[in-house]
Amino acid sequence: MKYRNIKLDRFSAIELWVFSAIFILMAITFMAPAFDELPQHAWAPNRGMFEAAGAPFNYYQHYLLPWLIRYIVLFAAFIALNFKLVPAIIRGERAGVHAAWAAVILLAVALVIFFTNYYLKFYLFYTMTSEKAVQNNLWQLSFLYTFRLLLLFVGYTMLRYTGLKVFGRLRESNFKSRFVNREWMIAAALWIIMAIFLAATRVMVLFQLWVIAVPCALLFYYLGFNVIIPKALRRKKPVRFYILCTFVLGFLCFLLPGLLLSAMSDDVETGMSIGLFNGFLQFLIVGPAVWILFKRQMKGNEELYALKTELGQSTASLDFLRSQINPHFLFNALNTLYGTAIQEGADRTGEGVQKLGDMMRFMLLENMQEKIALTREIEYLENYVSLQRLRTDASPSIRIQVSIPEEINPLVQIAPMLLIPFIENAFKHGISLREESYIKISLELKGSELYFDVYNSKHQRPQHDPEKTNNGIGLVNVRQRLQLLYPNRHELVVRETPNDFFVHLIVNLGK
User: Fold this and answer.
1) Burial class, 342, CB count within 10 angstroms (exposed 0-12 / middle 13-18 / buried 19+)
2) Could you tell me whether strands 372-373 and 413-414 are parallel, antiparallel, or unpaired per DSSP bridges?
3) Model-wide pTM > 0.85
4) How many helices (H) and strands (E) does the chain have?
5) C-alpha distances in angstroms, 469 versus 203, 267, 325, 463, 472?
6) Cα 25 from Cα 31, distance rounded (Å)
7) pLDDT tens digits, one per residue of 19-42
8) pLDDT tens-digit series, residues 60-83
9) Percent helix, strand and coil across the chain, each rounded to 5?
10) Which residue(s) pair with 8 in the sheet?
């Protein structure tokens, strides 16, 4: 219910804005002839009735003011019913009181229609036999007109709430489509509603312009965003290409609607005038607006991507350093070196200390660079494996195989510390001094493509092991770094069984 109320409020805001704009436009259209020098000669649909009946006709008294008063009252009644009373009745909030107010508003509408009909159809007093007969006719027409408006409002309300309910279900079911989505459906519903509303008011010029201009603008928007602007941006002079395309579309928006309206109404001048206005509207207003909106969206996407990339790289690097500079790992390494020094001479101990120093130097210096030579990354991997061998060589049940070519192109570069997480996890979870264990590492460079495989056994860690819940950098972080650093240029396959773990990575380092 909370979701539907939120969507209803958002739809209501759009709805209120559209109806208010239509009402203001209609009011301006009605009042425009009043500023003419000779308004008595202005066209009015009921002027012929007055002339046929021999009744005096005043443009203001018998046409402009009655219609203006009627539309103001109808607009106010619609606002009250649609945005206040009917929603309260549907929600069950003092439904009786709000229903009574709705009845009062409908009665007031009927009275206003009767009052305005008294002036709009004043010619009836010259054609009917008695004043009472005129009044009965006016009351009948007023209530009939009010009843039609009520049916129109009921139909609109049913369409409104049914549409919102459908939108809510589509949203809950994660319905997504390029052509059928919430925004387009709302726009189509509002377009149909406005067309019906304008047709009911019998303002044919506005009705024809609305029916023609809005679909042309939506088509202009769709073609501009998805076809014209993407093609224009691939050319040397995109603005010139876009202006040419919009001119062609604007000409079509003038010619086709103009010919269609002329054929349907047998009024070539009016039809071509509406078509010409529509063509200029699309070319001079919609066309530039689409270009500006596309540029703003593209700029916003670029800024968002840059921020995500920068934030992602910073987060990934920070998490990586936290996982790699691990006091527990350093403590184990020093313990290994100490045990080796006791068991043997100082040669192996010195070798281990040297490798550990090289690794620390790599982590503190070269790890801060965006790219390093692949040979340096391999050297770090080999030092890490050699250091781990110091504690595993004494166990014949542990097999470690490393297959790395001796000759590697020194010009090929890679992001630092990109491969070590897989080897670190292999030693962390694949080595057990009490069970048979194995680790197989292979690396191959074919042109600019790096093929890297790690295959290791898996063992359950003891409950008291402090590293049991520590997964180091983790595959999530590795995937994130690969996506940020090598988007669409890598392939990572991970397979896991209860007894082994396999990682296959392909990275294109050429770009």
Assistant:
1) exposed
2) antiparallel
3) no
4) 19, 7
5) 74, 81, 17, 10, 9
6) 10
7) 787 778 777 766 766 665 455 666
8) 888 888 888 988 999 899 999 988
9) 70, 10, 20
10) none
